[in-house]
Write a structure and sequence with these properties.
Length: about 110
């Protein structure tokens, strides 16, 4: 059986982020198997092969900041997609206390 590469593992985790929630790059990295992969998560999302099923716009930095380099139209597109899900944005930042996906590594 073929073992999944790091990008495939990252995509599997991102697919699980629920509607109306966000996760940080570090949280995705830890859930994908390596807490040091936060930067790798960014690289993987930048080349997202299937934006229809891999909601990379739900990934923000640890402080809740939106990505200036968001691949599908910049920060304004990420903001619009998140707001469509009821996530409130202030100064291009999400309230992580309120909107963070609660799944963590145990």
């Amino acid at each position: 059986m073929k073992q999944k590469n790091s990008y495939e593992r990252i995509y599997e985790v991102v697919k699980q982020i629920p509607y109306g929630k966000v996760a940080s790059y570090g949280q995705i990295a830890a859930l994908a198997g390596n807490p040091r992969w936060a930067r790798v998560v960014g690289y993987a999302l930048h080349v997202n092969p299937d934006p229809e099923t891999i909601p990379c716009y739900r990934v923000v930095n640890r402080e809740g900041r939106l990505s200036e380099a968001f691949v599908f139209g910049g920060v304004n597109q990420q903001k619009a997609l998140l707001e469509q899900e009821g996530i409130e944005i202030a100064d291009n930042c999400v309230d992580m206390e309120r909107f963070r996906w609660s799944k963590m590594v145990y």
